[in-house]
Amino acid sequence: MLNRSIICKVANRLRKGGYTLSQAFRMAWKLAKGKASVKVAGVTKERRQEAIEHLSRYNPETVSFSLLREKQNSFDLNAIAVYASVGSGKAYKMGYISAAVACLLSGVDNITAVNARLQAITGGFYADMVQGLRLSLSI
To answer: What values do phi and psi take at 22, rounded to 5?
Structure first.
């Protein structure tokens, strides 16, 4: 069970990441309870926009997501990469879980125990608009 000081630390990191204080605390508690909805960061790097466009053609039930901790990441020691695959196809790196959320999930020993599923593909209403991914996480 998480104590309140950990929740406050996570909420403060989320606040620095752009959430309002009330949003940050709600998100921190949802993450602690395993009912969180998070955005995937880094979706504009490499060819990830093309990959999101490719994913949008499939039923969300057939798309599976896996999380992989990157301990050798020099930017964030708690970095968690998000990989997507359709059916039994090859997994492609879609981006990362935000740093504040990854900090909270760093306490989870087996990151593969965290279930991630596609909640929504955001943006992309116009041809030049960036698309993003929103995942639902549960422990």
So the answer is: -70, -40
